[in-house]
Design brief:
This protein has 467 residues and is of the alpha/beta class. It contains 15 helices and twelve strands. It folds into two domains: 311 residues, Alpha/Beta hydrolase fold, catalytic domain (Rossmann fold), CATH 3.40.50.1820; 133 residues, no CATH class. The longest helix has 16 residues. It is globular.
Length: 467
């Protein structure tokens, strides 16, 4: 049934209603962060997908009359709220700019109901924990989140780069209305999506045509593609497997997202209370602090580069360390770390925002597979296998800004230089900042605005190309 792109009638009916409500909803003023909400618009009609899921969304920050828009694409297993604190910092420092943060279609599958109540002060930390996580091991909890069965969403195996780029095309076209200048950027996999959009062939014209700039945040697409054989093997394994989703850090969907949301939400609701998850048998041992910790310290321990496992490098920041000495529970000490743990908790939980968070519980494996064929916009055999049409790598004629952190490292630097070189882009139009030795993967977006090297160089870059 799932392979034919169909959902059970009740589930499909619910999604249709939700989708219609979301499309019809209009956002309130961005002057109040709590009133900011996701705008949903009709997206690409992906094969087999119900119309209620053929949507793409975005969070909008800054004055609606601003003539310049920076569109940011989240990375692997990330959602639109991930960029919210950064977006607010950008619009506060750059008059004339808005920031739009993309919410991909897979996030429509999330059940944000109890998180929403918690953000309004209507649910306790214990109620949130029970509903989203504790039920897995405590079968007396009967009212809880219902993970989406893989069999119901087999059509998500088609949610690759082709679907993503055509969804993004809808957002870009909306942003360009009224003659506004548009810059496209992204973090991590969002950097690869940025390259893919800029070099995509839209009826003979590159996606970069009509843009004013590109921004790469510890993510880009290098010039070397996966082989045709490897592309075919990855596609065959996806299509023959049961799940369309990536297991982030080895944690299957939706639980990586639920761990992130649960931990960050507890850190926001009751930062100094004893950790709800530390003694829970369902939490992996490598995420458990060695001393009794409070909720904030529990989240910090899982996220900081010095204590987070290498498998979660894509989740890491420089945030501080556990309190030492005679403490129960022990708290979190920021010290000289560049990222405030409460700021990062806001990013991951989407605190202050309804119906969205900074994670993606269900990340399409096909999107990550397809990124291997982007290859800085150079045609290659893997593109035919994966339906990737990034062939305008020689046509980048706009300024680019790339920031490298620990995970992207020199690959981001080299990919950006190669893209500029093959397009004969003048050196004055390429800004590259390498902080791979001092910035974790998420620090460029999470670091305190007053100490953020990425933001420091982004502002003059935007000022130089804005209207």
């Amino acid at each position: 049934m799932g392979g034919e792109g169909k959902l059970p009638r009740k589930a499909l009916a619910a999604l249709v209603v939700i989708g219609a409500m979301l499309v019809a909803a209009t956002a309130a003023s961005d002057a109040s962060a709590a009133r900011t909400q996701v705008h949903w618009i009709h997206g690409y009609k992906s094969p087999g997908t119900p119309n209620s899921l053929n949507l793409v969304g975005f969070l909008r920050f800054g004055p609606s009359h601003a003539p310049n828009i920076l569109i940011l694409n989240p990375g692997t297993s990330a959602g639109a709220a991930y960029f919210a604190p950064l977006a607010r910092a950008i619009v506060n420092r750059t008059p004339g700019w808005q920031v739009w943060s993309v919410e991909r279609r897979e996030n429509l599958l999330e059940d944000q109901s109890v998180f929403n109540r918690a953000k309004r002060g209507k649910a306790t930390p214990e109620q949130v924990f029970d509903y989203y996580l504790k039920w897995v091991t405590d079968h007396t909890i009967t009212h809880h989140v219902q993970p989406v069965p893989d069999s119901d969403v087999q059509f998500a195996k088609q949610w690759g780069m082709n679907t993503e780029i055509h969804d993004l095309r809808k957002v870009v076209r909306l942003a360009k209305e009224k003659g506004r200048h548009v810059v496209v950027g992204g973090h991590s996999l969002g950097g690869s999506i940025t390259t893919a959009y800029a070099t995509w062939d839209f009826n003979g014209k590159p996606g970069v045509k009509g843009l004013s700039g590109l921004v790469f945040i510890d993510g880009a697409s290098g010039p070397d593609p996966v082989s045709e054989a490897d592309a075919q093997q990855s596609l065959d394994e996806l299509n023959s497997g049961s799940s369309p989703w990536l297991a982030f850090g080895g944690i299957p969907a939706p639980f990586a997202g639920l761990f992130g949301d649960g931990g960050s939400s507890a850190a926001k609701m009751a930062p100094n209370a004893p950790s709800l998850a530390q003694d829970w048998s369902g939490l992996p041992s490598y995420l458990k602090p060695p001393v009794p910790a409070d909720n904030e310290a529990q989240f910090g321990f899982a996220a900081d580069v010095n204590t987070s496992p290498s498998s979660l490098a894509a989740f890491q920041v420089h945030a501080g360390h556990l309190q030492s000495g005679n403490c129960d529970p022990c708290g979190w000490i920021r010290g000289n770390a560049i990222t405030p743990i409460q700021r990062y908790a806001t990013m991951i939980s989407g605190w202050g925002l309804q119906n969205t968070d900074g994670t993606a519980w269900y990340h399409p494996m096909r999107l990550s597979i397809d990124s291997g064929a982007v290859a800085d916009g150079n045609a290659n055999p893997a593109q035919k296998v994966l339906d990737v049409d990034t062939t305008h790598g020689n046509d980048i004629n706009v300024p680019m800004y790339a920031f490298a952190a620990a995970l992207g490292n020199d690959r981001v630097v080299q990919a950006t230089k190669a893209l500029a070189r093959q397009s004969h882009l003048a050196k004055r139009d390429v800004t590259i900042v390498n902080r791979a030795k001092t910035y974790a993967h998420n620090d460029p977006n999470a670091a305190s605005p007053n100490r953020n090297a990425f933001l420091k160089h982004l502002i003059p870059f935007l000022d130089g190309i804005g209207r």
